[in-house]
Specification:
The chain has two domains: 89 residues, Immunoglobulins (Immunoglobulin-like); 168 residues, Glucose Permease (Domain IIA) (Distorted Sandwich). It is 10% helix and 48% strand. It is built from three helices and 23 strands. Strands 12, 15, 16, 17, 18, 19, 20, 21, 22 and 23 form a ten-stranded antiparallel beta sheet that branches.
């Protein structure tokens, strides 16, 4: 879908795709601006900044919260003093539920483990708060050549007591299976976390991050610039994993979105 806006002071066009998304999805806004007017958008009560991409083209990736009710939502695009409204449809989707039985010590944390987990969660949020220029190149690719073993959005009921939402995608893999960067960017974290074990995070720019957990080994270092499909680590079972696999998450502007939606996005 494209919008064309012309005024005495500003002329710009905006492309949006897709125009239908699922909860936990992501959509793209691409603006062509003929002068230096700043461009932003508003969606579901949030301001979304555009970032310069190439020449006079600006780009924004917009996250859709997993609990956003199905509806036809306005997307307001603002360039200088001009505004135009498009619409994106959030479709109805029922996420599955999975019951799990685990040892109590894996469900209820000791005070020491809880403190460590909280400290690491705060570190994670501080790392994921930064925004820079887009650093990805073309479409995003899958991190392994293996099948998916755990869907995004599954409600996990553990020991019939505690429910958590799976905010990533799990991929099968034996110990040592190569894990590849889903796109180019900069490694901003390589840490051993309580829950995620060996965790690596890539900053792709524009508030977009890919997160790789339970690695047995890091093949890239913090501060390193990596390219798409570069091997950045190996599958493992570190942290609170029940067996070897890759848990991959995607955070966009502070929102956990479905990696599958990112892989399908036409950039």
């Amino acid at each position: 879908m494209s919008l064309c806006i012309h005024s005495h002071s500003i002329a710009f066009t905006v492309e949006m795709r897709p125009v239908e998304v699922l909860p936990g999805g992501v959509f793209l806004l691409k603006a062509q601006v003929e002068n230096t007017a700043s461009v932003s958008a508003e969606f579901a009560g949030k301001k979304i900044d555009f970032h310069k991409y190439t020449g006079n083209q600006f780009i924004a990736l917009v996250p859709v919260e997993i609990d956003l009710p199905p509806d036809n939502y306005p997307v307001t695009i603002i360039a200088g003093d001009e505004k135009e409204v498009a619409h994106v449809t959030v479709r109805t989707h029922r996420f599955p539920t999975k019951k799990m039985t685990l040892p109590e010590e894996k469900v209820i944390l000791s005070p020491e483990d809880l403190k460590r987990a909280e400290t690491e969660a705060a570190l994670l949020e501080s790392v994921l708060a930064r925004q820079g220029a887009p650093a990805w190149e073309g479409r995003f690719s899958r991190p392994t050549d293996t099948e998916m073993s755990g869907e995004f959005g599954v409600a996990r009921i553990m020991n019939e007591k505690r429910t958590s939402i799976h905010k990533g995608t799990d991929f099968r893999g034996t110990e040592g299976t190569p894990v590849k960067a889903v796109n180019s960017g900069s490694v901003v974290l390589t840490e051993d976390f309580f829950f995620g074990g060996n965790t690596l995070i890539i900053d792709h720019g524009a508030g977009l991050y890919s997160i790789y957990m339970h690695l047995s080994k890091f093949n890239a270092s913090k501060g390193e610039r990596v390219s798409k499909e570069q091997v950045i680590g190996l599958v493992g079972s570190t942290g609170r994993a029940t067996g070897p696999h890759l848990h991959m998450g995607v955070r966009l502007l502070g929102v956990s979105v479905n990696p599958e939606a990112l892989f399908k996005l036409e950039l």
